[in-house]
Specification:
alpha+beta, 2 domains, 4-stranded antiparallel β-sheet, 3 helices, 16% strand, rod-shaped
């Protein structure tokens, strides 16, 4: 049996103990069987004759476990990225929709004031309505600027998220051999 510690650092650091065993007859032991061997009483019998252990098969088994873990980490990180991007998109859509509603309301008010100005009975009333319309047009212009700024902010947030995730995508692996044990069960 062979054991190795594996630390994967990406979004988070994860530590794993990899165990892989194979019998002299070539039967592969699953991880649970390897763990159970540690619960048996044992005594030290000497050093392991590395030639007697199917060392390459053990290393291949560890490599397979490691690849499985790395694929799981990659899948989780991909899902995390999708969720964060989806949240950002929804937030951006909500923000844009809110500003669009404000713009539509202001446009509707301007149309109504234009109509009122045409129907105003006298010049002082028309001037008062025109002044109010100008104020609302200024508000609308400000709302358009806010809309443009919000769109830029949304894109900047997406860019920051992508940059952050790109930096964290590079997985740092720390592998450390722990042991090579040959068990003999009597």
């Amino acid at each position: 049996m062979i054991g190795e510690s594996l630390s994967v650092s990406a979004f988070e650091t994860e530590d794993h103990i990899l165990l892989y065993g194979i019998t002299d007859e070539g039967v592969i032991l699953d991880v649970e069987q390897c763990r159970r061997l540690f619960s048996l009483s044992a005594k030290e019998g000497g050093s392991v004759d590395e030639d007697s252990a199917p060392k390459q098969a053990l290393k291949d088994g560890l490599t397979s476990q490691k690849n499985t873990i790395l694929n799981e980490v990659s899948t989780r990180n991909g899902n995390f990225f999708e969720q964060e991007l989806d949240k950002l998109d929804k937030w951006g859509d909500d923000r844009r929709n809110s500003l669009k509603v404000t713009l539509k309301d202001l446009d509707d008010q301007i149309k109504e004031l234009k109509k009122q100005a045409r129907l105003a009975p006298n010049l002082p009333e028309k001037l008062k309505i025109e002044k109010e319309r100008k104020n609302i047009e200024s508000e609308r212009d400000q709302a358009w600027r806010e809309y443009d700024e919000a769109a830029k902010e949304i894109e900047q947030n997406k860019d920051r998220l992508i940059d952050t995730i790109e930096k964290k995508l590079s997985q740092n692996l720390l592998e450390e051999p722990l042991f090579l044990i040959r068990w003999q069960i009597n």
